[in-house]
Amino acid sequence: MKKVFSRTKSLKDAIFHYCPGCGHSIAHRLVAEVIDELGIRERVVGIPPPGCAVLAYDYLDIDMAESAHGRGAAVATGIKRVNPDLIVFSYQGDGDLAAIGTAETLHAANRGERITVIFINNAVYGMTGGQMAPTTILGQETTTTPYGRKIEREGYPLKMSEIIATLEGVAYVERVAVNSAKNVIKAKKAIKKAFKVQIDKLGFSLVEILSQCPTNWRLSPLKACQWVEEKMTKYFPLGVLKDAL
Amino acid sequence: MAEKLLMRGSEAIAEAAIRAGCRAYFGYPITPQNELPEYMAKNLVSQGGVFIQSESELAAINMAFGASVAGVRVLTSSSSCGISLKQEGISYLAGCELPCVIVNINRGGPGLGNISPAQGDYFQATRGGGHGDYRTIVLAPASVQEMADLTFTAFDLADFYRNPVVILADGMLGQIMEPVTFKKKKKLPPKDWALTGAKGRKARVIKSLILDAKLMEEHNWKLFRKYERVKRHEVRFEALDLEKAKLLVVAYGTMARIAKEAVKRAQEDKMKVGLIRPITLWPFPTEIISEAGEEVSHFLVCEMNTGQMVEDVRLSLEGKSKVSFYGRPGGSIPTPLDIFKVIEKCYE
After folding, report:
1. Among B96, B200, B203, beta carbon nearest to A63
2. CB count, 10 Å around CB of B75?
3. What is the model's pLDDT at position A245?
4. Of B256, B284, B278, B83, which Cα lies nearest the Cα of B164?
5. In terms of domains, do B222 and B244 share one?
6. CATH code for the domain of B245
7. Residue B348: which pLDDT band, with cuts at 50, 70 and 90?
8. For B284, left (φ over 0), alpha (ψ -120 to 50), or beta?
9. What is the ipTM of this complex?
10. Angstrom distance (rounded) from CA B258 to CA B243
11. Domains (ranges, CATH) in chain A?
12. Residues B182, B284 share a domain
């Protein structure tokens, strides 16, 4: 039989611990495939976040260093600046990047650090059990917004990618999703472009991935994919937000 | 002979760091230590090093974490309030066993306090400061020359033990100008653990997360054994006229300089007074104090705080000798005469 699909080299032969239907495993695979297709495995260093994806180094067969919550862009900055030949990326969730690490993320972007940020937005704190995230959408029920997110109480969901796209040091920002085969293909293209931007030393690059979290959304995997389409993309529209190339 | 230069304390640390092979500096401005980052911005950069004025102390320590991960010698500095913010990163450095040198030019506190010299951060520096079961090596210089020398030592110890090292000085030591000579640069040891891209080798992971309680316990004990090695091999202190002393003064940093003058004056008055100046605050020179306690019945601990190191002196003596304390917190600096009067009183 002809082999049409196989595990890419940078992805370990390990079983993901992620919940059924979670977007992380797709995002991990895409990052690994891009690393191999660009042939950069031997000069890449990744920074996984605290949270569900903290064990990314159990799945990605590349050099990785953990980071404190929110500090991924600062750690990546330190690595990249002292060894500019490396390709450095951080992989961060919405709480990590858009709440506790807002300053580190914005300033790394504004300095135009030649790093790539993979931003997983699932509108909820996953690992801690489903609390409100800065990107929780209006009306969304979480364990800390049991009556739904209200403007008067919690304010508006934060559109970090839109903010980052306004910064001059930023070369490339795109928002994608991994809720359908079509979107997964687009997501991979975006990730590849973000890494290319770094390889070409053009500036800061970020890909926001709308990622389903069926467990904390209390939805089936299929319904979670639909929820991304019907609810999340209305507030977080997909597409290129900045392309300075 | 090495060239003798007239330098400010903060700048001597910066210059020594560059000469010790430091390739990266990250920091956020705070008084009274701004001369250090300013020196780095000029002189580290002109020699091809990396300097970033970060958006916060949190960012600075995490950038330093990154540079350390990549295997280079890295320095960050701040003063008291800023060091509090760095504690998160210092805990991660300790947990991940990463070398890094952190300078604290101690000012008055708590809170915003003031910008005057103080020693109120002794507990924070020697007890870990951040969360978790860890230790940082703490070096306490008392002159500009020692600030330079101990900077070389700090980088060597950080690399050797793969542990963060704190240089704890204060606003006075940071500002005073004294002649200083610098050691020669040594060849740096290779770092076979650094992240450089998995070329021709297995991928490496640097982390402090160990979910399995059994493995985490093992990691904690492994760190403990390292700290015990540090305690055995790295205790540093200066001892002055311990023999036949009836009273021993214990002080570090700026306070030790002042106390030394007071001790000299007391000796001129035929008082049998000696001095122990801890140079490593952690590991603390417990043994010499304990040994001295066999002969000396009275110790006087002088600090620019309300009493922190005095606890370590009491622990070292285990009740063997009487311990008096003289403290001047909040940025007040005593004169040698102030301390001489206390010595006189204790001596009676």
Report:
1. B203
2. 32
3. 80
4. B83
5. no
6. 3.40.50.920
7. confident
8. beta
9. 0.97
10. 21
11. 24-243 (3.40.50.970)
12. no
Question: Tokens in use for A87?
Answer: 């390709």
Are B58 and A103 inside 8 Å of each other by CB? yes
B112 lies in the same domain as B82: yes
Residue of A nearest to B62 (CA): A75
Helix H, strand E, coil C: the string for chain A is CCCCCCCCCCECCCCCCCCCCCCHHHHHHHHHHHHHHCCCHHHEEEECCCCHHHHHHHCECCEEECCCCCCHHHHHHHHHHHCCCCEEEEEEEHHHHHHHCHHHHHHHHHCCCCCEEEEEECCEECCCCCEECCCCCCCCCECCECCCCCHHHHCCCCCHHHHHHCCCCEEEEEEEECCCHHHHHHHHHHHHHHHHHHHCCCCEEEEEEECCCHHHHCCCHHHHHHHHHHHHHHHCCCEEEEECC
| Token pair for B147 | 């600030």
pLDDT of B1 strictly over 70: no
Give the structural domain span for B68. 5-233
Residue A173 structure tokens:
């920002």
Query: The domain that contains B227 carries what CATH number?
Result: 3.40.50.970
**B140 and B275 co-located in one domain:** no
Say if residue B56 is in the same domain as residue B193.
Answer: yes
The tally of domains found in chain B comes to 2
State which residues of chain A have pLDDT below 70: none
What's the distance, CA B162 to chain centroid?
A: 16
Cβ separation of A86 and B70 shorter than 8 Å? Answer: yes
Query: Who among A64, A79, A103 is closest to B66 (CB)?
Result: A79
Task: Output the pTM of the full model.
Answer: 0.97
- Domain match, B145 and B202 both: yes
- Domain check: are B217 and B276 in the same one? no
Residue B66 in contact with residue B98, Cβ under 8 Å?
Answer: no
Among B213, B233, B253, where does a domain finish? B233
